[in-house]
Amino acid sequence: MPPLKRAVAITTLFNALCLLASCSDQQDRGVIVGSASPATVVANKLEQQSQASMQIVANSGAKKVAGQHSQILFGDLHVHTTFSPDAFIMSVPFMGGSGLKSPADACDFARYCSSIDFWSINDHAEGITPRLWQETRKSIRECNALSGDSANPDLVAFLGWEWSQVSTDPSKHWGHKNVIFLDTADNAVPTRAIASPREQLAKAPLGKMAQLLLTLSDFENRAFYLGIQGYYDEIAQTPICEPNMNTRKLPSDCLEMAKDPRELFTKLDQWGFDSIVIPHGNSWGLNTPATTAFNKQLNREQHDPARQILFEIFSGHGNSEEYRDWRATETDENGQLHCPTPSEKYLPCCWRAGEIIRERCTIQGIDSADCEQREITARQNFVNAGNSGHMTVPGQQVTDWLNCGNCTDCFLEPMDHRPATTGQYALALTDLKQPQAPLNFRFGFIGSSDNHRAMAGTGYKQTQRKRTTETFGPPSERHARTAPGDQREPEPYSIPFDPAGVGLGNLRNMERQNSFWLTGGLVAAHSTGRHRDAIWDSLKRREVYGTSGDRILLWFDLLQTNGDIPMGSETSSAVNPRFRVSAVGDFAQQPGCPDHALRALGQERLEWLCGNECYNPANERHRIDRVEVVRIQPQITVNEAVGQLIEDPWKTFSCPDDPMGCSIEFEDEDFVPGKRETIYYVRAIQEATPMINADNLRCKYSESGECIEVNPCYGDYRTPADEDCLAPAEQRAWSSPIFVTFKPSPEPTAQELVQ
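Predicted structure:
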């Protein structure tokens, strides 16, 4: 059939099916089913914490537990619905997705599935049209209106979006930042979400022919497949706002852009509403170029110390805490990128690319000198291709790469860990362009989920991997040919990367990423109350901490005679600082859901939304195994090597075999002699329990400790749907740092000397 006739036929059939499936229906905010949780449920949370803190006091002999506020509240400040473009595509049923998930679903999930205390919606601003932003605002207000007593609500929902900036050029890559607001009223929040410019933003990743094929092969879900075009048409039909204008003067019906953090902060300043900006997914190599470093953001142009006060240390992408000196790619004295040699605990993927080609070449009996040259070429091709380096090796599969790119001595590291974008690296940096007023990052640490299925606080149980993580892939071999994956023949040579015709799933190694998806973390706030203003105040003063998902109770104070100073604080001292840490493990979980969740949602919605598994604590708590202290001394000269300024761990304290918690005190005897600012934070580490993908690629090791074979946890049919890929891991909580500057004691006066 001639191309024109074929196009007409496809369009005709597409439109006919649309009439049957109502595929023009637009997503909306949905309907919240559950009202406020019973008051007894809320009261029980506070009572359990009170009992735990009193037990620590009794066990430790301390006068009180560290921390000066009445309760610890758990939340998730990073939740997506299918208003986000990536979440929309990840919800495709034939790829194992669960279909459309609305803001209303997120509210019900937070209240009754995960039973957290607060959450924020953070859909990608790139896909939030004016209509969807209006729907988002309405849904968040509806969620709060159903929370019972406004002074003591069961759940607080915050409004926000994600500014998602990505570039293959490290100098132009700024990463992802969540923006959240105190208020929710239309006159107290921006009229539009503010996005980052993206190429092909409004282009559907699946053409009409693909949508038709999916419709015919999965007719039960036809409305979803035929609705893909409408979703992207809505974005395409939204005009881009005029650049370089005051945000308050722009029309309400355009899509607004900010090209870098400075422009984002400027626009937020123009609105003038109370907001917090949270960097996240920072060391996640799937999106982050290998040579990206946080130092380009630590300056008075690209950093806003009043807004950018929290750092997402842990999420479903993994752990962005730990710094290492190795790099995935290095730059020589001429500014040219090259592949570094492996170290004892790190194998660069560019190096592994050379090994793969060398192995193939040798098997085919090709001359050794030729194979050696092909190996060298393969390394450089990989480096030149950036985050798409895997595509320079024809026919590559996840198993070929072994554990390259892994931080093998990190806790639950993300795929292709980028050390120069971690929390430790950021805290060690100093901008010394103005020597009399040096600039440092002052981040508090949080965890969150970054869930794209409207599931706030997913880490409460390590079950149902394909529901509670971002695992993505066709559930049957029948659909495998339409899924991301390298369909080329394995060749004994590398090829330069050509992005033409490469889909997003292959442009980034999504197939390998499935082995690294986690259920995500939580943010915990030391708060004077459950209401919105109290939680916001905790966030603003950084008296917060992050967890890897479990609801570990953690207190961390600098002890002083005139009043203890809690985590997140800045202070000065003329004497050696002394600290107290107290921690209590999370409750073990019972199967199923509590009765009040079933009564609120009904069996059908409980099964669809929660998978019949809710936060359902037993009476027993997990034991805290140990407490680790990290000490960082920020740069005082530009030539100080960051790795030498980070002591991790600086101190380690074993905890007693007691499920009622652990409390220790310690002092830094080096502080006064060192006479320099020092940053302290702690990790409370729980006894090992099973976690999804905790062993990510599941390496088989040689006697010398080298990974020689991997057993990936696939997102598709190759790993059974009921296989959760569990492995033991020590869940943990990270306190926000305490920042202590050295302040010399004043010289005594003559009168004081006489006295």
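Summary: The chain has 18 helices and 30 strands.
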